[in-house]
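Q: Start with the shorter request: fold the first protein.
A: Done. Sequence, then structure:
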Amino acid sequence: MKEIIFLFSLFCFTFIFSQKPFEYKENHFPVKFVLKNSKDTITTRVQNIGFFTNKKFSPVTYIKEINVLDPSGNKTTISEFDIDYMEITDPQNVVRKYTSSTSLLLAKKDFGLIEILYKGKLSWYRDYFFEGMGYKINKVDFLIDRKDGKLTNESGFFKPSIKYNLKEKLKDYPDLLALVDKARKDEDFIKILELYNDK
């Protein structure tokens, strides 16, 4: 009888301690966020949902909801409308920052998280959203002038990009207008906003 108890105890001990602990996967990106009903910063991992690869960040990760994982691998779903502020770090160490649309007072209706591309005298934000019934992603960029709080956003056929809005805002700075014409990537526009911020 003692041998059976010993063998059973040995089996239980081996079984319990032989299970591998949960390990985050390459599509589990570090995330920090603050909920609207709290002041605490939660640090964990978010499950990235990419289109062609899960190694590259995609806004689908947070549109409508995010899936966060605790160190044990337990998944919790949180609505993007419950988040006040969020930072996601991708595998290339790019930190993407988001704030709730209600914190910017952009509209009476809450339309979720907005990416902070640049904050300064002229701040640049981007809203990603699903278009139609499928998973096609669209975006709208916003500029907010800190001096007057005025919001300018790209819209429709006549104002098709952030470039048009920057030209309007920077019309008194010919040196910056020349850079706007040459700008192609987000980084180019951020550099222009940094130069404007120093004037």
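Q: Next, the second protein, separately.
A: Sequence, then structure:
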Amino acid sequence: MGEFRCNRSVSYITVLEIYQNGRVSTKKAHPNFRKFRFWLFASLLAFEAGLLLWSAAKDIEGYGRDQVLSALLRLTVAALIGGAFLQMYNNRDKRFPAPKVKSPWQYPLVLLAQAASLPMFFIPIWIELRSPVHTRGDWTWLAITLCLFLFATFILVDALVSGHVNFGWVAAGALLPLVGFFQFAYLTFYKPAHERPRVDVTAKVEKVNESRGVTRLLGVVTLKNNGAAAASVLGAMYTASGHRGELASAVGGKAHGVLDSSESNRHHFGKFMSLLAFDDLLASGDSIAPGETKTHSFVFDAPNNQQNFVRLAAYVSVSTPAGESKRVKCKGKRGGMNVCARTEYPPSSWAREILGDEPFALTKFHFDSMEAEAPEPPYISTVYGSIRGKKREEVQAVNPLARDQFTQSIAEYRLDP
């Protein structure tokens, strides 16, 4: 049994506790310390509630359709935290003031609110740790949410060690925001993989007629979206070019430079002679709906004496989700010859707005290839980056919610000698 004594002649309370070895020790708890501890925890609870209310309001205002469920759950958790604050405040000992119980987290509503807040504070931590770019502002928000996450964890662990945990309350608090966490997992993991772009591209070239040494040809390029979501076009073009045939054996000892077991070098046998036709298949920023088929056909002439076969190449670069595309100035030594389009991916939530890296896709239409030492027809390429300075080959490295696809389709037609 413990003994409690109050000495009015001193400014502290003496609490006698009997330990297992039977010895008696004295522990002094100054009223100012109890008061500080009470207001510290009360302030943290109020800050948690305010932050969740603010983030929910921002998501409802700017991203209501995608974030409405998560925002409503954050409002519910904020209400629980506010209720925990009121429960502590109304049960305080007005003489100090301080909670009447030894630890404020012994109140069931405090435990319920902190269990419910853990998944909410985990989400921004995950977003920032997965980011390739970290600014000073990012580190500040990460530190704030990490401290609140550790604060909630400390309360639950301390209550568990002290034997004040009612698993029914904690389970109810943990299960409530899991609905919002499932929505986060759906948008972050399942949806990008399930809605990956699947656009089939086929190119076909056939003879229309021939007159006075010139062959008239018909080129047809077909795009079909077999995916479950709309595919946003980053860049799409075709080129019809004339070539003189050469044998693969002509590569000889240079084969290691062509087949290097890495990425495609766009090497196709046949010396490039002339550019016969080229154009956009679709504009950057256009969308191909699920199941939609788009066909582009055109007629062009190929002089028989300049080349002995014609190559039709179609290049298509797409991604999900959709972004906002605009034409920008190309950089580089011969950048003026090229055409560039940048597609910026908008954030999907307020958390990604402040912690995201402003990702974009830069698609370049290479016309400087015709001025190279070994000329080749124009082609397109897409790289991904962040406005904050990082560039990556894969879109997931700068935008975990995006998936991309680059397709090249080629058809050839042999001209009569």
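Q: Describe the second briefly.
A: Helices lie at 31-90, 108-129, 136-162, 167-194, 255-258, 350-355. The two ends are 110 Å apart (CA to CA).
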